[in-house]
Write a structure and sequence with these properties.
The protein is an alpha/beta fold. The chain contains 17 helices and 24 strands. A hairpin with a 2-residue loop joins strand 11 and strand 12. It is globular and about 70 Å long. Bound molecules: adenosine-5'-triphosphate (ATP) and magnesium ion.
Length: about 525
């Protein structure tokens, strides 16, 4: 089909190639973006999805190939040029300025002014409040973005692109940090945009999401298109085959084993919240050697804050943490890592990695002691072997171990953070959203690694907003809502409805009026 003759196609990519040092990210890609439709793009970590989107959004230039709009070639030399053509993007990696307010971030580069000089904060706040209301979000637009949790920041990114009135909106994994309720809200907004004729390009690793929302699906594998169809013509097995080139990999099966002694005990943990109340409200729990405990709850339930308390990074927190019978008194993350607790944080870009350092340097950062001879010299060969083992285990796609982490795709960066935590040889592993942003193959692999580690005697505590994940992976499920534990049960006794109901217990309904209160923090 020729792009020029089809009025439904608002933008076409033709023969796009992108060469990075050491990698060819795209190999002759043709891609059509249809008006008034959700154009889904899917593929394994490192397949080239974000690269293709960056080319459409003017962030990267193709090495070869063309972009056509209305049948005419266009040059999208930067994001401003793309914006002029009505193209907006929600990046996979959040790009907000933490010291600026929600409204300032939304209008950055397009500030509302009084007489062209002073920024009209009042007008910006009012407009931002409307956008947040559309997304059913309660934060005051004058709140600094640095005070928001990552899921809330993702909502601000979405508001920012809505403010542009774009004709083509690219969303690169917009839901990876959103709860189910927030995904529903986003999907409603996407439905409205589609009805207005906006073209949506939507990337996600959550296949059930894609099937639910997509009108057209395009699959990328290793820089090439392996399939492109109306969504109604395909099913999940077709998608998986196009993605990985074979039928679905065998998903990890439960490894049966007995639990050992109690490893981690948290007693009466509290963390006061700014402005009153508790982010973590008198929480007690325990974890045995060999046990995987899943903490389920809505965004803002206090799950990540509980992890922060366990890691000793919250000076205001009160409560006891005991590891293998010994109370942890050190107040630093590094102190606790040394004692045997490792954390895989939710915000992996900001907290987990140093972008300019290499893959190998990042992975061993927390475990250098194991790689130093006589405590001084870095044993480079040993380090490389250790890193190479994990890179292989987690199927990280990387040109070389010396490549900077910034050159890896989003999902492959996540795998590095996981590898980094595993390399510290922990007794207890805290994982915040373990499958966030990683493809289905890697997810199965991470789950398998988690089960293996548990079978070897590790205790694993993980947080998730994904109901299926908590049901599949946990030996025991703990539900949190509004800072409190609202239920606890063995997986065998857990019914999905019960878990969801507990996650809403004591949770105040979403406020849509900007009262300045922060319900979902
Ligand atoms: N700036 C860069 N320098 C070098 N290589 C890069 C750069 N950006 C991306 N790559 C490489 O290009 C390939 C495609 O990356 P891309 O980010 O497009 O993948 P993706 O499909 O978005 O994956 P994910 O699902 O993990 O986000 C990867 O091998 C990645 O390492
Ligand atoms: Mg990507």
């Amino acid at each position: 089909m020729s792009a020029s003759s089809n009025p439904d196609i608002v933008l076409s990519v033709r023969g796009a190639t992108k060469v990075y040092p050491g990698t060819q990210a795209l190999k002759g890609v043709d891609f059509d973006v249809r008006r008034g439709a959700v154009n889904v793009l899917v593929g394994e970590n490192g397949a080239g999805k974000s690269t293709l989107m960056k080319i459409i959004a003017g962030v990267e230039q193709p090495t070869e190939g063309q972009i056509l709009m209305g049948g005419e070639p266009v040059t999208l030399s930067d994001t401003a040029a793309a914006a002029k053509h009505g193209i907006g993007i929600v990046f996979q990696e959040l790009n907000l300025f933490p010291n600026m307010t929600i409204a300032e971030n939304i209008f950055i580069g397009r500030e509302k002014t009084r007489g062209g000089i002073d920024i009209d904060a009042k007008a910006q706040n009012a407009e931002a409040a409307k956008l947040l209301k559309r997304l059913e979000h309660a934060n005051d637009p004058a709140t600094p973005v640095g005070d928001l949790r990552i899921g809330e920041q993702q909502i601000v990114e979405i508001a920012k692109v809505l403010a542009q009135d774009a004709r083509i909106i690219i969303m690169d994994e917009p839901t990876s940090a959103l709860s189910a309720a927030e995904v529903d809200i986003l999907f409603r907004v996407i439905g409205e945009l589609r009805a207005q004729g906006v073209a949506i390009v939507y990337i996600s690793h959550r296949l059930e999401e894609l099937v639910r929302i997509g009108d057209y699906i395009t699959v990328l594998r290793d820089g090439r298109i392996t399939g492109s169809r109306p969504m109604g013509e395909v099913d999940v097995p077709w998608i998986v085959r196009a993605m990985i080139g074979s039928a679905s990999k065998d998903f990890a099966k439960t490894i049966h084993h007995d639990y050992g002694p109690e490893l981690l005990t948290v007693e009466d943990m509290t963390l006061p919240r700014k402005g009153g109340g508790f982010a973590v409200d008198h929480v007690s729990l325990s974890l045995k050697s060999g046990e995987i405990v899943g903490i389920y709850g809505l965004m803002g339930a206090g799950r990540s804050e509980l992890f922060d308390c366990i890691m000793g990074r919250m000076p205001e927190a009160k409560g006891r943490v005991t590891l293998a019978g010994q109370e942890l008194t050190e107040r630093s993350i590094h102190g606790r890592i040394k004692r045997g607790i490792a954390l895989i944080p939710e915000d992996r870009k900001a907290e987990g990695l140093v972008q300019i350092l290499s893959v190998a340097e990042n992975m061993t950062m927390s475990s250098l002691a194991a790689f130093t001879r006589a405590g001084i010299h870095l044993d480079v060969a040993k380090e490389k072997r250790g890193v190479a083992e994990f890179v292989k285990k987690l199927a990280v796609k990387v040109a070389s171990l010396d490549a900077p982490v910034s050159s890896l795709s989003g999902g492959n960066q996540q795998k590095i953070v996981i590898g980094k935590a595993l390399m510290t040889g922990p007794k207890v592993l805290l994982m915040d959203e373990p499958s966030r942003g990683i493809d289905i193959g890697a997810k199965a692999e991470v789950f398998r690694v988690m089960r293996e580690l548990a079978a070897q005697g590790l205790g694993i505590l993980f947080v998730t907003s994904d109901l299926e994940e908590v049901m599949e992976l946990s030996d025991r499920i703990v539900v949190m809502s509004n800072g409190k534990i609202t239920g606890e049960m063995a997986r065998a006794e857990a019914a999905e409805e019960k878990v969801v109901a507990l996650s809403f217990l004591g949770h105040e309904p979403h406020k849509t009026t900007g009262s300045g209160r922060r319900e979902l923090q």
